[in-house]
């Protein structure tokens, strides 16, 4: 690979890549492939079946024109709520005012325009700090937090996080290589504002997913040797990534038979059919003219993890395949054609709109959207207004601008709201308190311990079923009311105490991490208000409560501040922040 390609990559790459790729000396083959990704990927493109296009690069899906500034500005409260739904936290009153004055439509369109840095480029930059110049899994975690905390492309970051919880990969059993995890995140970022059909294909052919759910290396049946197509990915792409277990109406309600029993959306025959359709794929960086390479490879070769998988026809099942809704693929098709037909079959199933739409609503807005809300979002998935199915921009607009998502009365709606995920609460504080490090980076790695951390950490979900199930209901009033509360599946006495200790230590120490990557809080804006309890509470209310702090919470804050000397502004601020982390009206986003 010519070094001119690296220069081209630097010229077209992210700002971080431009500043740091020139430091890679000598340039490794993995560096060349990763950096070339910055130049070879188009805005909405990606690896098509059987190609070896690198996965990664600066991600951008530009919009041709921004809508005009709103003539009817929303309230400050609704603007703050909107930012909480669409970002990893409010940074300042000015940010809220900008959203309010420009309007939601313009903010969304502007976010569609914004690019974000490549996670692969971050690995290339940060691996130089190691004596062996090898990337580590910690760097993959850091890249996620860099995007969450520093990128202006906040809606893309929230959407890719939501997609990662739908199309789960995890570095827990089996271990996934850093280049695999970071290129997967680049793929999700690239598809966040694209089309679900392309997303489904890019997920299916990504080597991280192929490895995680065993589609990579799955081969045709051989009765003599006892080989059968692996059913793992076929099962999960149906159950978790697209249509679910039962047939749905557009409003998300279950379809039932004459006896009132929910109707299954597929059976074991269909799973076996998709498993056969997905046989014959392995790493795209290998030579598919050499059959031995289908199974024989070096997993430490970073190039394997940053290009889509490609087909080995000799390992593909030649049989016919039974798919969804009675569709059957004829025998003898190529693996590429079977893959295309199988994904088209999934994409066009009527369940996809309500199944995916509801989970995106849950991740961004509320755990229990009404049937009408789900139906409107599913309708946008089915048709973006121009006859296009699967347009995720249209889906996001429908979710965020729906009447149930907007307005000032959310706090009074008994069935509205969701628990803020632990990592989002952490990000809210880091952003709202202006956390910065000396070198501009972070060392946020493992937060999955329930004892002394958050019980949740990106890329460390316990299984393909994510951290929690979308339909989870904790025992008690919510179950009696028939309401889901997904995030409560990782909420227990242990995690409550652990997170209390985590946040108390965070605020008392004034930051997170160590060395030049330690994120230090800037308490100055809050300390200047600390002598006036009312002003301090108002600022906390805006940054962390969306101006929806309850009267009882405000009273508690007032009494606590009054008990601390006015001569100890930092102590007042630390106490207020600790109480914020414990407050129900902060933990529950409405």
Structural description of this entry:
With 590 residues, the protein is mainly alpha-helical. Helix content is 46%, strand content 3%. It contains 26 helices and eight strands. It has helices at residues 3-12, 15-20, 29-40, 76-86, 93-102, 104-113, 119-126, 137-150, 154-166, 178-191, 196-205, 207-212, 232-239, 268-277, 335-347, 352-364, 371-382, 392-401, 422-432, 477-480, 493-509, 524-527, 533-545, 551-562, 569-582, 584-587; strands at 281-282, 310-311, 321-322, 328-329, 418-419, 511-512, 519-520, 588-589. The protein has a two-stranded antiparallel sheet. A two-stranded antiparallel sheet has the order 3-4. Helix 4 (76-86) packs across helix 5 (93-102), helix 8 (137-150) packs parallel to helix 10 (178-191) and helix 21 packs antiparallel against helix 25 (569-582). The chain is globular and about 80 Å long. It starts with a helix and ends with a strand.
Write a compact overview of the structure shown.
By secondary structure, the protein is mostly helical.
The total of beta strands comes to 8
Structural class: mainly alpha
Largest sheet properties: 2 strands, antiparallel
Mean pLDDT: 90
Strand content: under 5%
What's the SSE blueprint?
Layout: H1 3-12, H2 15-20, H3 29-40, H4 76-86, H5 93-102, H6 104-113, H7 119-126, H8 137-150, H9 154-166, H10 178-191, H11 196-205, H12 207-212, H13 232-239, H14 268-277, E1 281-282, E2 310-311, E3 321-322, E4 328-329, H15 335-347, H16 352-364, H17 371-382, H18 392-401, E5 418-419, H19 422-432, H20 477-480, H21 493-509, E6 511-512, E7 519-520, H22 524-527, H23 533-545, H24 551-562, H25 569-582, H26 584-587, E8 588-589
Helix pairs in contact: 1-3, 4-5, 7-8, 8-10, 9-10, 9-16, 10-11, 11-15, 13-14, 16-17, 16-18, 17-18, 21-25, 23-25
